[in-house]
Model the fold of this input.
Amino acid sequence: MTSDTPRSKPARPVVTRFAPSPTGFLHIGGARTALFNWLYARGRDGTFLLRIEDTDRERSTPEATQAILDGLRWLGLDWDGDAISQFDRAERHRECALQLLEAGAAYRCWSSKEEIDAAREQAKAEGRPPLFQSPWRDRDDGDLSQPHVIRLKAPREGEVSVEDAVQGKVTWKASQMDDLILLRSDGTPVYMLAVVVDDHDMGVTHVIRGDDHLTNAARQGLIYKGLGWEVPVFAHIPLIHGPDGAKLSKRHGALGIEAYRDMGYLPEALRNYLARLGWAHGDDEFFTSEQAIAWFDLPQINKAAARIDFAKMEHLNGLHIRAASDARLAQAAEDLLAAQHKPRPSPEKAAAFLEAMPGLKERAKTINELIDLAYYIFAERPLEFDEKAEKLLSEDTRAMLARLTSHLRNNTSWTSDVLQDVARNFAETEGLKLGKVAQPLRAALTGRAVSPSVFDVMETLGRDECLARLEDAAAG
Done:
């Protein structure tokens, strides 16, 4: 493990936020953004807030909002206070647009869509950037009774810069900045204004988000300055790409957090993996959330896009499964079965599952694999044999198992060690190696070719269930 490096100390109490739009599920990129904000705040005794940016009323749905909340809760990213609706704050956003107007940082514009389109086409024809330069910027003789918008008065000369905690200083020419609409002609505020007002009113000190918002930061910085507010620390993190280096999309596999839950990932493993996507603490790969909270800082975030690696994710999940307590895994399995609308095991089977956990978790990389390995516990007679198990149960091996069953039936002690001795002695009398007995025995008792030690399996299942399953297998 590497030694901890000194990290930056904020001048004021840290407040971060995650601000998703409720237009779909919580995707993996959004989950990592939420995680980085959560880690940064929790590591500095700060505050982590949640804001639902639901101003797009046509695309925002209550179902999507609930999916985001459920995804964050499952991932273990708890937020402080209530989730805030951006739409509910529209009146405050309008108030701030008028403040900008009064301060001379914004102006009213009566230009029609046709006039704007024509001006842009003319700029293109003259080889200029297709930015609309409103003729109303320095006028105040418009008719207030007629539809109009309120625009931000962006600088026309010089440069606009953002000091970013990840990307460094990023600069744009003022000639590339247009006069952003703040308030539409119907009086509704635009997203860019709403974000600034909400972040200021919520006391956000650090805006940690995807680098696809980097250009927005330049415009939003102008709004902050126009209102006389302190600009927060911006930290624009690289996006997540697929294994092929292309922008992550549905073709790369499951994207919603609930899909990873259904695939059998532990939330602590997914937090671990997502933290390593674009951020590093030396060579550490496996770490706890407590360690991530203590280590995480903005300077260690990479500028380049991170590539998702599903094989690494699964491997890391297996490490977390082996590190988890047996009771934790049993509960995770029961929760997953419930999420998949499958019946929960009976108290007796749940107890057997917990007893078998030490052997099961050594072989599983996902909770689904853990459940599948425990098929022999949950299954009802007669067992369904998978293809490999079926091949092990030939006519000859079934006959051999029938003879072994006679030896086992006379055995009163049913512990793993005693059962292994019985099987070894039987193998010697049959002129076989122990594996030639143990393999079909495993298939008959578990329905699978792979399981924990077959003698541990027998102890877990108990004498009566084992003998009954062996009789089923012998009967074919």
Summary: Residues 1-6 have pLDDT under 50 and may be disordered. The radius of gyration is 31 Å.
